[in-house]
Amino acid sequence: MATPRPRLSRFRRDTRQQPAPEVTTVDRRARLLAGDPSLAELTTDGRTWVGRRVTSLEEGRAAERNLRLVTAALEHGGVEYFLVPGRSVQRYVVGIRLADRKALLSSLRELYAGTALYAAEPVSDIWPANAALYAEGALPTELKRRPVIRFGEILLGPSGQVLAGLVRGCDVEFWRDGGLLREQREQGDARATELLGSLRFQAPPALLDGALVGPRPNAVSDVVPAEAQKPATRTIGGTDHPTFADFTEPGIDTVTFPLDVVYTWVDGDDPALATKREAHRTGRAPDAQSREAGASRYTSHDELKYSLRSLEMYAPFVRNIYIVTDGQSPSWLDTAAPGIRVVDHKEIFSDPDALPVFNSHAIGTQLHHIDGLSEQYLYFNDDVFLGRPVTPGHFFHGNGIAKVPFSPSQLGLGAPHPDEPAPNSAGKNVRRLLQENHGRMTVNKFAHAPHPQLRSVMREIEERYAEDVDRTSRSRFRTPTDIAMGASFHHHQAFLTGRAVPATYKARYVDVARGDADERLAELLTNRRFDFFCLNDVNTPSEQQEEIHQKIHAFLESYFPFPSRFERTTVTHT
Predict the structure, then answer these.
(1) Fold of 260-559
(2) What digits encode the pLDDT tens for the residues 552-568?
(3) Where do runs of H (alpha helix) occur along 354-454?
């Protein structure tokens, strides 16, 4: 009898190796966050992003930081590059040959595959829709083929607030071989024909051989012929970067003259000053007292400290800063810090007997007397802040002409009136003088922003309108007979004599006591899309002042979290 054969299992064991579980983008992001405690998530407009917390001003210089990330990858991959003079102050631009695109992308992947670096199209959106996080896998093919790619990290402050988005990233442009483009055009290639036809510099065919051709316009030239490819360097953040000699030359509108900043400041919490102010206010009309000498006008929210932080963060070109005060100095201010000086009213008033004054119109007639002040300077109220990086070119042309911030708000018609805002009355008085001397009628007010000024124009006003200037300089409190010399008079006189032109400032005004203040402050903090902003506290009811104070302080500390070099490490209270 035959031995029975063993029965086979109905189900054979599958000895093939099972594929590893798919790693999702969620897994990759979780791994990223777990591996780097300086990273954090944030959500805006329904999308969750990953940002890096920074703890110092130097770490927070976003454009420089992103440039370093890109150039480190270029050097790691052995890719030659050159700095391109970009058209925005918000970021740096690097050019490489199109043939080196693959080497750069490979190097970026090797260095940053597990990091919070983003790649995106170079759009103006604060939060670009197509941004791709390196830690979540390969970049989209369409993005890798773009003629320009932006790379950068989102930077967060100590409490997770946004300090800089991808708008501050580093753009990499892929430059083409001019000779190859010429050949392709001659062969009827539509893309080459379109690209060469769109160039700002229409180079003759002979210059295209050996030339580098950029993918978009820049501040100098989108074609660099072979003869213009002379090596040079540009220093950024203490590091020398390669570029071409012609890319380093100042243009005709480049500002090369020094720029100083002047603040007027009062310590509203100083009891001695309050006593002095009350003593001189006795006998004034109630309407003028309530409107122009109210408590909230003198309430301190430490705005000056944060305005100085904004200068250090966003305007490193400023030479000297002068703080004009009535014998006061902020307890937190390091008066020995280089580049800053407190100036007493007594130093600048032509007639010291006019003092004391508690009127910004009066003080504004004397600012140009500051010893050593540059011809071109910026006048700041302490409630005005820089919201993002600016250049001298925001305020002046290269030939010294000022760019003055006309406002759509109007002065109105009729004579000055004690019940209208004092700036309106002061502007109307300026209108009368200018009509008498220039035959022109002024209409507009000026924005709450930094005011570019020329000492020579201020001196000219002081000489030609001596009686009105002298009267205003002696006006202890704002009155309907004042002139607004620091803004309205200066700007209109400079414009009418060919030394200023109207400019559009990207600025935001926030009345901190209005019902929409919270919404406007939140938008400022999230998007940082304004060059300047003003937080004005004019007529806040007394019962709301503490609430408003806390709101302003929290906002400013969040927007400008890092102390400037002008602050004492230990504050002494006097």
Answers:
(1) Spore Coat Polysaccharide Biosynthesis Protein SpsA; Chain A (3.90.550)
(2) 999 999 999 999 999 99
(3) 360-364, 422-438
